[in-house]
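re: ur question from earlier - yeah i can do the single chain one, its not a big deal. heres the input i used so u can compare w yours
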Amino acid sequence: MIPGVGPTGASARVLAGYLAGIVVGTMSITLLFLGMRAVMDVGGACADGGPYVSAQPCPNGVPLAMVGGMFGLFGAAGLIVWFGSRIGKAAASIVALGWPALFLALGLNFMDYAFHPPDAEATPVWGWLIPGILFWLIGGAPIAVAVLAWREARAGRPGNRLTQAAARVPSRAVVFNHGTTVGSAPKPARVEFAAGAWGSPRPAARRGGDSDDGEADLVDDLTRLAELHEAGDLTDEEFATAKRDRLATETQPWIERLQPGPAPAGPRGGPVRDLARRDDLRLDQLTGA
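and the output i got, formated as tokens:
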């Protein structure tokens, strides 16, 4: 390992700054949590300074703890994002956990005092319970949404218009077996995108089996091309080229399976052309041409 460089490739200074941000953020949330409890112990409100004498002064150190905690959160977020971006996206994105951590912690104070009030009031104390529920909703809702979105993305089921639009972006890359590409840069092998999938394209499984499977695959591909053409993703010329190349790569294996020897050429160009014409007719039926 290079001296001064961590296992992720980040320098020791970057790692130290990142960890400092996490420590400062944790300390800031702790100060706010404890300062809030101190204020709730004296009734939930206090004041210090000013031209008037407050009926309930704040406990010692509470104003400094609350102000320091609030500004400390902003400083911690800046450190985490600044140094975390030099480590990786996942390291920088941990700053998003600060929101639920803060509101869930403060909501815990409300819920605790709602059922264990310091002055032995009848429980639950609704003045504490309702804010506690609201704080937990504010802190827990982002986590619930993130978990649901993550599950939807893994399952390939985009749940809103934004994710559906993102899932349709790679559909323009139509790559065939011999590197013929429509609407994107040429690639050496066929790639496919699962419906609503996120991430990099996965190589298509090698297709085998009987001729029925090959025919079904061909019809699926031709149908997909027709959909892209109707949606305006393919021009007429691109559509015709892709259809011709797809038929050319599929009909020859059919002939080899049907006739072990070389396919004899007939007066109309042989079985290959007959099969191509048959699939042209099927594609015309699919596209309504």
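The chain has nine helices and four strands. not sure if urs matches, ping me
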